[in-house]
Design goal:
By secondary structure, the chain is α/β, with parallel strands linked by helices. The protein is built from 11 helices and 13 strands. The structure holds uridine 5'-triphosphate.
């Protein structure tokens, strides 16, 4: 019997250098896509998938994230006094309940693998999800729910992937695929940013993982890899030699909001799905004489 995935780690301790100067004082995870900060998309996705506890790995200057997921007493009281009860109720529904959220610190941004390892004591001895908040997913159901449905069938470790064009594979982490298994397929290898024409597939790793707790032991003893950082990929590759890894091809769309283009793309595409602004944005796009 596979143990259920109850906890999710959301690393938010990175410096966000690609978005300077916007991110000099503002956490990049608080940049807004349409009407929600980027980080809220992944928290909503996690709760939709049945996650019971979110563990944020934060760093200096990330206090706004903590405030965002807190109950704002004055705001709530004022909205209700002014008759804006549905807005207050919606904010309430999106706020994690008592004990459903933890924060731990990564004192130095030593890499994604190190950030995940910082959550080891709170994760404990159970499988857990990792969601990179930069990657905003648009799918029904959400990406993590699709992965958990596959996990319930096959167990093990799961990496979400999304198809890309062959000419773009050199920008991403690409998986090597094996046999299909239910809603998933075996992953037999991974390569970071393969040189043009050498990618083992067109499937890139899009920032959602389900991992067994053993990964924490591997991360403990792992030395630094590419970019002088402790990479999650290196520990996953080591674990792949002995433990099953499966891929789930995300039925939906991934926006890389850690890059300027991906962030702007997410704003345009998700605005076209938002009832408040869809018509105006669509008119604006039609009126552009490019
Ligand atoms: P990125 O490498 O995309 O984030 O990491 P970054 O370093 O903040 O961005 P740039 O490249 O300087 O613009 C993906 C996720 O992992 C977190 C980041 O906060 C982001 O959510 N991360 C990365 C950490 O928590 N700690 C780290 O040491 C590195």
């Amino acid at each position: 019997m596979t143990k259920p995935v109850r906890k999710a780690v959301v690393p938010v301790a990175g410096l966000g250098t690609r978005f300077l100067p916007a991110t000099k004082a503002l956490p990049k995870e608080m940049l807004t896509v349409v009407d929600r900060p980027v980080v809220q998309y992944c928290v909503d996705e996690a709760f939709e998938a049945g996650i019971e506890h979110i563990i944020f790995v934060t760093g200096r200057g990330k206090g706004l994230i903590e405030d965002h997921f807190d109950y704002q007493f004055e705001l709530d009281a004022t909205l209700r006094q002014r008759g804006k009860v549905p807005v207050a109720d919606q904010l309430d529904a999106q706020t994690p309940g008592a004990g459903q959220i933890s924060f731990t610190r990564q004192q130095r941004p030593l890499g994604l693998g190190h950030a995940v390892w910082c959550a080891r004591d709170i994760v404990g001895d159970e499988p857990f999800a990792v969601l990179l908040p930069d990657m905003v997913m648009d799918g029904k159901p959400g990406c993590l729910k699709q992965m958990i449905d596959a996990y319930d069938e096959v167990g093990g470790n799961i990496i979400a992937v999304q198809e890309t064009l062959p000419e773009l594979t050199h920008k991403y982490g690409i998986v090597e695929t094996g046999a299909e298994k239910g809603k998933a397929f075996e992953i037999t290898g991974m390569v970071e940013k393969p040189a043009q024409g050498t990618a083992p597939s067109n499937l890139y790793i899009n920032g959602r993982y389900i991992l067994q707790p053993k990964i924490m032991d591997l991360l403990s003893s792992q030395s630094t890899g590419a970019g002088g950082e402790i990479q999650l990929t290196d520990s996953m590759l080591a674990m792949m030699e002995t433990d099953p890894f499966y891929g789930v091809s995300f039925d939906g769309r991934t926006y890389d909001c850690g890059s300027k283009f991906g962030f702007l793309e997410a704003n345009i595409m998700l605005a076209l799905k938002n009832d408040d602004v869809r018509d105006e944005v669509s008119e604006l796009i039609k009126s552009l004489d490019l």
